[in-house]
Amino acid sequence: MLQVRDCSVEIGGRLTLIDATFSLRAGDTVGLVGRNGAGKTTMLKVLAGESPTAGGVVLRPAATGYLPQDPRPRGSGVDNTGLSHVLSGRGLDSAARRIEKLRLRVEETASERDIAKFARAEEAFQEAGGYSGEAEVRRIAAGLGLTDDRLDLNIDALSGGERRRVELARILFAGSDLLLLDEPTNHLDNDAKQWLITFLRSYRGALLVISHDLELLDVSITRVLHLDAGVLTEYRGTYSQYLAARTADEARLRKLSEGQAAEITRLSRLADTMRGQTAKRAKTAKSIDTRVARLERTHVTGPRKERQIAVRFPEPPRPGAVVLEVAGLSKGYGGPPVFSDVSFSVGRGERLLIMGLNGAGKTSLMRILAGRADPDSGKMDFGHKVSAGYYAQEHEGLKAGAEVISHMRDAGLADQEIRSLLGTFGLHGDLAFQDAATLSGGEKTKLALAQLVAGKHNLLLLDEPTNNLDPPSREAVARALGSWTGAIVLVSHDTEFVARLAPQRVLLMPDGDLDYWSDDLLELVALA
């Protein structure tokens, strides 16, 4: 299915994968793991043929399904609806339109040639599962949490999470021999995750998946590829078995590295004591130097210590008593309104959680609050001396072709201050001068959060801010925001993150009902 030989991957002039060789066969389910920034996402792009290799060979089947971390509709749906887009995974949407045109032509002329064309097209359509295709699409979409009414909408009217589900549904429907999935559970609620896990366990092709969702990895994966410092290491078994094996490997490597270092130090000191003495001892010292040089060439490097990020949001400037006032907001996309007559206010230092099923308008509301979209009706006003910062779940504020450090200069900080701030988020060294578009999903999240810190805001609008973050980074961000005294309006499926932020009130979409927060609502966070 997938053959990889001596493959190297380069990002911004640095090699993140060096001479890797491995293969996937039908039935293999493999997890690709590693810290944020190790190069997993770029490696998957190379395997999918979306980016060139820096060396080596990648052989993949023609029927390869690739889900990038930030997917955009990639199909050729004839009418731009979600349904048509998914059907395009097998070409059934265009085939159905061709059959309809041939049918109308037969009704008009009924020539033998047109009748034969219609018969051949219909037979091919039937053999491809065309007549049952729509029902299958709706079944897959429902499993991923897309209802029929959402699937029938124009793709442009769907939220970012819904568009991602449409693209995932298209890939699953297409029947690919190889699936390459980058964070497939992003934006999925618990029911949709469980459906996807069940689907992947029954999938007969080859699967390579990147995910921070430990449940998905542990249940579905039979082999793990660990990427670190350009080296790809293979582990057999589930994610839990990989963690145990990796811990044992790191302990062994650490012990071996320390032992070799101690022996190099001992021999070097011994040789130094012999120099300048007798000719025999000088000759022995030279022999020891040769041994030391050989040991240094073969010295095993111990496991890299995971760099921890230490995020701190500055004390916000004091605003007026009310930081945000919303009255009668409505929004639609050509059909029925997504939400209507939504009204609420946010006080100084208050935390408001916006909850609702996918498609309930959470992201649409956040974009209106951030000034990125206009409401159909209603209005919103910021309070006295309010500075609002917006974190968009699709990183729409990051510009392709612009270096990481240039994204931070609008805040008016000196480059030295910027480098220091980026370093606290783990974006250190050459990463500061890398094209932001080439960052991994986790690194893009960290850059977007670093922009919020640099902005010194007193109101944060956060739309799924923990997507793509590894567990240590997610904990660091939660800890920093948990102690921050500014106001927050939050959309999140992350129950632990929501619990750390301890919201005072909740806005239930699409109805716009306001209620006080209760910990009993935590079990609904992952579902909404």
What does this structure look like?
By secondary structure, this protein is α/β, with parallel strands linked by helices. Helix content is 41%, strand content 21%. It has 4 domains: 1-63 and 177-206 and 222-229, 3-Layer(aba) Sandwich (Rossmann fold), CATH 3.40.50.300; 68-175, no CATH class; 262-303, no CATH class; 322-525, Rossmann fold, CATH 3.40.50. The chain is built from 18 helices and 18 strands. The strands form 4 sheets. The chain has a 6-stranded mixed sheet, sandwiched between helices. It is globular and about 110 Å long. The model has no long low-confidence stretch (mean pLDDT 85).
List keywords for this structure.
alpha/beta; Rossmann fold; six-stranded mixed beta sheet; 18 helices; globular
Which stretches of 5+ consecutive residues score pLDDT under 50?
none
> Helical stretch count?
18
Helix content: 40-55%
| Largest β sheet strand count, sense and barrel closure | 6 strands, mixed
Question: How would the blueprint of this fold be written?
Answer:
Elements: E1 2-11, E2 14-24, E3 29-33, H1 40-48, E4 55-59, E5 64-67, H2 82-87, H3 92-109, H4 112-127, H5 130-143, H6 148-151, H7 160-174, E6 178-182, H8 190-202, E7 206-210, H9 214-220, E8 223-228, E9 231-236, H10 239-274, H11 279-297, E10 322-332, E11 337-347, E12 351-355, H12 362-369, E13 377-382, E14 388-391, H13 404-408, H14 415-424, H15 441-455, E15 459-463, H16 471-482, E16 487-491, H17 495-501, E17 505-508, E18 513-516, H18 522-525
Parallel strand pairs: 3-7, 3-8, 5-6, 6-7, 12-16, 12-17, 14-15, 15-16
Antiparallel strand pairs: 1-2, 1-4, 8-9, 10-11, 10-13, 17-18
Helix pairs in contact: 3-4, 5-7, 10-11, 16-17
